[in-house]
Specification:
Layout: H1 4-43, H2 50-77, E1 81-82, E2 86-87, H3 92-95, H4 97-125, H5 132-155, H6 160-164, H7 172-190, E3 197-199, E4 206-208, H8 216-235, H9 241-270, H10 275-290, H11 298-322, H12 331-349, H13 361-364, H14 368-398, H15 405-410, H16 412-417, E5 469-476, H17 481-491, E6 497-503, E7 512-514, E8 517-519, E9 524-533, H18 538-549, E10 557-564
Antiparallel strand pairs: 1-2, 3-4, 5-9, 5-10, 6-9, 7-8
Helix pairs in contact: 1-2, 1-4, 1-8, 2-4, 2-5, 4-5, 4-7, 5-14, 7-12, 7-14, 8-9, 8-10, 9-10, 9-11, 10-11, 10-12, 11-12, 12-14, 17-18
Length: 584
């Protein structure tokens, strides 16, 4: 008969095994977040740099793995820990691999993917103007010694912050604040993108120009991937079902509330809800809840979300509009500002009733936890700022941080990687692929005679009495295209060319906002319709178009009339009047 002690032992062993598997699944989810960061950064920047962004995110993990294996993990989690400050490297992963796997395998994998997350945050803030070599050197430095040492203070049980009771469950301070402050330093030292800031009309102040990202869809996809991966990011270290459920709950509430807050805030402030800011807000709420996801309740998570939703907008606009620091994706606002806020929120909002059992100021009146959190985040920020400033300055003075203006204008895909475009099918160039049209007919002569179609000789367009051809070009609102097309077909027009164009007249566009920056939308989307007529009277075309397009409001459009020398139909070789007729 199984005793109660044996049953408890078996249940405990099974539970430990289950959550050990969950721990590794969580690590895999965090690794998948690299795809999310890549999509966010690619979508929020211009298409000519998309391949460069993808390459940087790929190398963050690959370079980070190499240096973390060599030294980083030992500095962070070695059993021999000097003065609560730094691990003593032992290289057991190379000398005693079996023993290392037995005791450290799960910890190594999980801390590795965390390390890669800290490194990749910086990619977005320095995007579109940083040398790829310089970025690789930075990535190696932060993963080799900057992140591992401060993370050891927090998560190695012998670390001095861990000994003091500093609480950062999944990395608001150790990961996001570190990546965020590094992003700030990098953005300052590399400088803004060309054209981002110019002189205002007075010539004394700076004018801020919005540079919209090329794909809000990719940015949204990245945010959803990151949110999905964040359940592993926050939840993987939970070792019982109750705390795991609590973590999933707080990790859902905070970003949702933050996004709603930003939507309302930008809607009231700018007259319309800002899509890219709301995407940033979801990440800001996730960063804010990361430190205390196990220690806050639903009300605390809501407060974190509200503050994160407002904070992310204020910091983005402070950096861009006031300080003129160019951060294309909002990495500083999302990760540094909300990493600091999330760390302090533990000292303010942690409830003793939560599984972590911490004593937050607003629940207990006890200032101690808040003081420890403030000391910890200050130490981490100072450590990171000093070392990363030194690293960036060293890179800047040796290989250089920034590409040349010519390279930046052309795009880093081409200049840094030899990639014409990350979207090859949309290249504005003549395709050079051979699709095997060996049977194409080569024709010669004054009038190309197509073999299958009899061609009628027509008068040369220069001959006296030849028909006159007139091109009518109409620029109008997109909404009136179908009505205009139907009217022209009824009139007898046999062909037209329709193009989407941008332009303005008296309207001068209308103001919009991108990430809080006014966008000079003086070019509005229009439709351009081109027709060449001969048999149909030009005046009839003009009068019909005027009737169809007229509303009496600014922006109805313009009609332009040009003389055309000749018309040639390629299929039959017909010229002049006959080339315009659509009758076999």
């Amino acid at each position: 008969m199984i005793t109660e002690e044996l049953a408890a032992f078996v249940e405990g062993a099974v539970t430990k095994e289950v959550f050990g598997v969950w721990f590794l699944i969580g690590a895999a989810l965090v690794f998948f977040m690299q795809a999310g960061f890549a999509m966010v950064e690619t979508g929020f920047t211009r298409a000519k740099n998309a391949g460069n962004i993808i390459m940087k995110n790929l190398m963050d993990f690959c370079i980070g793995t190499v240096v973390f294996v060599l030294l980083g993990f030992s500095l962070m989690m070695a059993e021999d820990y000097a003065f609560g400050f730094i691990g003593v490297p032992n290289l057991n992963i190379f000398q005693d691999f079996g023993g290392f796997i037995q005791g450290n395998a799960s910890s190594f994998v999980f801390n590795l993917v965390f390390c890669a997350t800290a490194a990749t945050i910086v990619s977005g803030s320095m995007a579109e103007r940083t040398k790829f070599l310089s970025y690789c050197l930075y990535s190696a430095a932060i993963s080799l010694f900057v992140y591992p040492i401060e993370a050891g203070w927090v998560w190695n049980s012998q670390g001095w912050l861990a000994q003091m009771g500093f609480h950062d469950f999944a990395g608001s301070a150790a990961i996001h604040s570190v990546g965020g402050v590094t992003a700030l330093i990098g953005a300052i030292l590399v400088g803004p993108r060309l054209g981002k800031y110019g002189k205002d009309q007075s010539g004394k102040g700076k004018k801020v120009n919005a540079i919209p990202g090329h794909s809000i869809t990719l940015g949204a996809l990245g945010c959803f991937i990151l949110w999905f991966g964040w359940y592993g990011f926050n939840g993987a270290a939970a070792w019982d079902g109750a705390s795991l459920a609590s973590i999933f709950l707080t990790t859902t509430i905070a970003p949702a509330v933050a996004t709603c807050t930003t939507m309302i805030f930008t809607w009231v402030k700018n007259g319309k809800p800002d899509v890219s800011m709301c995407l940033n807000a979801s990440l800001a709420g996730l960063v804010g809840i990361t430190a205390g996801c196990d220690a806050l309740d639903a009300m605390g998570s809501t407060v974190v979300g509200v503050v994160s939703g407002i904070l992310v907008v204020m910091v983005v606009e402070l950096l861009d509009l006031k300080l003129h620091i160019d951060d294309p994706v909002g990495a500083v606002a999302v990760h540094m500002a909300n990493g600091v806020w999330g760390t302090l929120a533990v000292g303010l909002l942690a409830t003793p009733a939560a599984p972590a059992g911490l004593r937050g100021l607003l629940y207990t009146g006890d200032f101690r936890q808040l003081g420890v959190q403030a000391l910890g985040i200050a130490a981490i920020l100072v450590w990171t700022a000093l070392l990363m400033t030194l690293v960036f300055q060293l890179i800047k003075r040796t290989v250089g941080l920034r590409v040349s203006p010519e390279e930046e204008i052309r795009g880093l895909d081409s200049t840094e990687h030899g990639l014409p475009s990350a979207y090859a099918d949309f290249l504005p160039a003549v395709e050079s692929l051979d699709y095997g049209f060996e049977g194409a007919v080569t024709v010669a002569g004054e009038t190309p005679p197509a073999e299958a179609v009899p061609v009628k000789r027509v008068p040369d367009f220069r001959e006296e009495g030849a028909p006159k051809f007139t091109k009518v070009q109409i620029v109008c609102k997109e909404s009136r295209l179908e009505a205009l097309k139907s009217a022209m077909m009824t009139l007898g027009i046999t062909g037209m060319t329709v193009s989407h164009v941008l332009g303005c007249g008296v309207q001068k566009g209308k103001p919009e906002y991108y990430r809080g920056v006014p966008v000079e939308a003086n070019l509005l989307p229009k439709v351009q319709v081109d027709m060449v007529v001969s048999k149909v009277p030009v005046r009839s075309v003009i009068e019909t178009a005027k009737q169809v397009l007229y509303t009496g409001h600014i922006g109805d459009g313009k009609i332009f009339v040009y003389d055309v020398e000749n018309v040639v139909k390629v299929r039959t070789g017909e010229e002049g009047f006959d080339a315009l007729q659509d009758v076999e």
